[in-house]
Amino acid sequence: RVGSGRGGGASGIAMAQADAITDLHDVHRALQEVVAKERAVDDELEELLDRRGELEQGLSTMRTSSQVIEKLEVDAKLVADNVAHTSKLASRLSSRVRRLDGVQARIKNTLERIDAILDRSNCLNGVNQAMDEQDYEKAAEYVAKFIELDQDVGNLPFLDTKQLSDQKTSMMASRARLEEIVREKFKQAAKNNNHAEAFRYGKLYPLLGIREEGLQAVTSYVRSVVSGRARAQFEALSDKLGGDGNGRHKADFVGVLTAHFQDIAAAIAENESMLMDAFGNEALLSFVAAMQEECDARGTAIIKRFCEHTSIEKLVKDTGIKSGKQSQSGDVDPREVEFYLQEVLLLCERSEEYLSFILAKMGSASPGQVISPKEAGRVRGGAFSVAVKELISYYIALEEYYMEETVGTAIRISEAAEGSLTTSMVDDVFYILKKCGRRAIASGNLQCVLATLNFTANILTNKYKEKLAYEARGKATKLLADAPPEYGLPPAEGAGKHAAPMNDLDVSAEYAEKLRRELEEFATEVFSMPTDQDRIKSALGELGKAASDFSHMSKSSLEQLSMGILSQVKPVLGEVSQFSYELTEEAYGEYEVNDPWAMKLVETVESAVEWLQPLLTLGLYDRLILSLADSLTSRLDAVMMQKRFNPLGGLQFDKDVRNLIGRLSSLTQSTVRDKFSRLQQIAIVLNLESVQEILDSWGDNAGSLSWRLSPAEVKKVMSLRVDFLPADIASLRL
Q1: pLDDT digits 0-9 by tens, 682-731
Q2: Conformation bin of residue 414: beta by default, left when phi > 0, alpha when psi is -120 to 50
């Protein structure tokens, strides 16, 4: 029957539908569908048979996993039973451990009770025995240990209160007796200046619980030693100040003050470790502050005595009155002022070094090794610092007077010595200013340095600059008038004096910059703080400005001289303007033998300047040649732009430029080639074989050549060539 076979009712055609088929065509179609379905079922069965091994292995694995899971379940139950048993055992052990801890704590308390009783008893016995043997260090150690134990017994309430009280009373009595002995021994040692014994007993104070008293005692003793030495030195100084009236030259105020500083520094260095070991790190700060208080007393007295004996305040007032009268000769000799300056400088310098040492030492002893503003203010605002500031104000006033007077004298007596290119005031003024600047920087006081440097700049930019300008006025014209009547003859007799002011300007610019640089280097050595260095550099900037002013004045004077020399060259330049560069072969050959104008122009310049070489400084003479070269090239540039060139003319112009460079280079140690760069590039353009050839050396193809000519100027130069077509030049893209 249709639809029977594999698949049965799942053959895809319902039995009812099969019974309803009556047409043969439908029967065949249904049969084909059944056959197709049967083939699909066969293919599916074949695929399943191919995977039979894989499926059987999966079933086997599932059976094995089931067995493993059953075994794991049994093992898990066994582990759970063991854990439960272990938990019960741990609980029983924990209870026993807690009981053992309680027993151990009671044993420990018992041992502490026994130790406390034994230690306190040992301390009581030990302190009495040590005192009987006069071993006070050992006795103090027993007292310190008892005090420590007494603090600890507060945590042991089980001890007998009466027993504790009796022991403490006994120890306090021994302690009081030991304190009296230590105080008396220290006092006796201090009185006898027995340093070893004084420090021996001073270190016992902290062990006896009287640390502050001990620190005060040791500090007072050391301070009394320093004070005694300072007093003796001050009295010896006072003795020298009396008598024959020459005490000012015999008394060494600097030496006495320096010795006082050294005593304080030595006291700090020698006792630093002892103080920190015995009294703690903070004790050093207190000790240094006490030493500074001693300096406030003794150091201030020395400075005031110096001011009184030298009458420096009156001297400052006298110099102030004198400085207000510009043209009068005062009674205050600058040499006398310089003597005071040297001594005041040393006093200020040593004082600044000492104060820096004290501040650094207090900083190292402070928490975090940084001194507090309060402590720094106490030092900088103390009596000694105030006295030093007053002394510095005197120094500044005297230094300014000294500079003003000595510079004024140098200017008044200035003369051009035989064999010298400059007047005497140049070397004298800058020697004075350098000496004063270095002296101020050596003081180590920023206020002093800034004031002195500002006054130095003020002198240069006013009094000295005015003198230079006055002397240089019109000297270029007068110097040209002294020119020899013929080449090879000497100039007029006054030529050296007329050249000297111009040299003064040149050398002054160099000296001012050198002074700025040397003072800056010296200040960097003395001042280590970047902020201080920056302020000094700012003040020194005024010296750089003065150097720039002198340089501009020298340039202006040189330009006047250059213009005068150029007037002698004008006739030759006129000949150049008449020269034609549209050359024939014959003319070009002649000019190869006889130079048309370049050599004549250089010879004219050489004859006009050669006599000036021994009269001007090397730098000034070189700049004169460079200035002439600059002016000549500018005028030649303008002249050549009005000419016409053929190829031979371009070759001749290139040769002329080379001749000019070669001959002018022999007149100076500087290079003149850069002055002729435009003319050289004009020669390059004029010697091109074609308009397009410029592209081989323009733009990215220029290489190391830096064009001074703009594209428009290049085209303009090309238009000077008679054989270059204007259309080709116009179409050129640069």
Answers
A1: 999 999 999 999 999 998 888 888 999 999 999 999 999 999 999 999 99
A2: beta
Confidence of residue 6 (pLDDT cuts 50, 70, 90): very low
* Per-residue pLDDT at 412: 93
Distance CA 330, CA 337 (A): 12
Answer for the pair 709, 717: CB distance below 8 angstroms, yes or no.
Answer: yes
What separation, in Å, do the N-terminal and C-terminal C-alpha atoms of the chain show? Answer: 103
Tokens for 92, please give them: 């029983």
What is the reported pLDDT for 318? 85
3-state helix/strand/coil string of 307-345? HHHHCHHHHHHHHHHHHCCCCCCCCCCHHHHHHHHHHHH
Residue with tokens 């031979």: 648
How far is Cα of residue 172 from the mean position of the Cα atoms in its chain?
61
Distance CA 448, CA 450 (A): 6
Quote the tokens at residue 680. 């050289």
How many Cα atoms occupy the beta-carbon half-sphere of 446 within 13 Å?
15
CA distances from 289 to 184, 376, 568 (A): 26, 10, 79
Check: CB of residue 535 under 8 Å from CB of residue 563.
no
Arithmetic mean of pLDDT over the chain = 85
Tens-digit pLDDT profile for residues 290-309: 999 999 999 999 999 999 88
- Residues 615-666 pLDDT 10s: 999 999 999 999 999 999 999 999 999 999 999 999 999 999 999 999 999 8
E strand intervals along 434-571:
none
The dihedral of CA 308, 313, 316, 318: what is its sign? negative
Q: Does residue 109 register a pLDDT over 70?
A: no
Joined tokens for residue 508 = 């002054």
Check whether 4 has a pLDDT greater than 60: no
Beta-carbon neighbour count of residue 354 at 10 Å?
22
Sequence-ordered alpha helix ranges (H) in 482-529: 495-526
Exposed, middle or buried by CB within 10 Å (0-12, 13-18, 19+), for 376?
middle
Structure tokens given for 478: 């007068």
| Rounded Cα distance, 689 and 63, in Å | 103
Contact 415, 424 (CB under 8 A): yes
**Using CA atoms, how far apart are residues 414 and 425, in angstroms rounded to an integer?**
5
For 155-210, the pLDDT digits (tens) are 545 455 666 677 777 778 888 888 888 888 888 888 888 888 888 888 888 888 88
Question: What is the spatial distance between Cα 624 and Cα 620, in angstroms, rounded to a whole number?
Answer: 6
Distance CA 443, CA 344 (A): 9
Residue with tokens 């493993």: 68
Question: Measured between alpha carbons, how far is 122 from 117 in angstroms, rounded to an integer?
Answer: 9
Whole-number Å distance between alpha carbons of 600 and 399: 58
Q: Give CA–CA dist 536/333, Å, rounded.
A: 30
CA–CA distance, 441 with 17 (Å, rounded to integer): 126
pTM: 0.70
pLDDT of residue 8: 45
Cα distance between residue 515 and residue 610, in whole Å: 32
Please tell me whether residue 192 adopts helix, strand or coil conformation: coil
